[in-house]
From TrEMBL:
Residues 48-120 form the Transcription elongation factor GreA/GreB C-terminal domain. This is GreA/GreB family elongation factor. PANTHER family: REGULATOR OF NUCLEOSIDE DIPHOSPHATE KINASE (PTHR30437:SF5), TRANSCRIPTION ELONGATION FACTOR GREA (PTHR30437). One of its GO terms (biological process) is DNA-templated transcription elongation. NCBIfam families: PRK05753.1. SUPFAM superfamilies: FKBP-like. It comes from Colwellia chukchiensis.
């Protein structure tokens, strides 16, 4: 499956890179770095409303299980609230920069994969 195009605001891009640089390395950083490096960076004011950004609530469906989730994409230190998803989780880093209606293949455990479909963004 070809990875979908991503759009990220310059503000989110800069803050995410700064966060990664401040933290001790963990393997989940690689997933987020890969997503950031292939994203188109635009000024925050030009980011379309239908694109997943930091602190947006994303409703998405994992097609393998047909389970739908509505979670707020946050920085790791903000995951203390229920209903939040860290950008450093595999699904969190997969969501950043996607647009409503897009799908991405994402790894699960034990060499399994799923397709994540973006239903809506608010």
């Amino acid at each position: 499956m070809i990875k979908p195009k991503l759009i990220i605001s310059d503000e989110d891009y800069d803050r995410l890179h700064a966060m990664i640089e401040k933290q001790d390395y963990v393997p989940s950083h690689d997933l987020l770095i890969d997503e950031l490096e292939r994203a188109k960076i635009v000024p925050k004011a030009k980011l379309p409303n239908n694109v997943v950004r930091m602190n947006s609530t994303v409703t998405f469906t994992m097609l393998s299980s047909q389970k739908t989730f509505a979670l707020k994409l946050v920085y790791p230190h903000e995951t203390t609230e229920s209903g939040t998803l860290s950008v450093l989780t595999p699904v969190g880093s997969a969501l950043i920069g996607l647009s409503q209606g897009q799908e991405i293949e994402w790894p699960l455990d034990n060499n399994r994969k799923t397709i994540v479909h973006i239903d809506s963004i608010s």
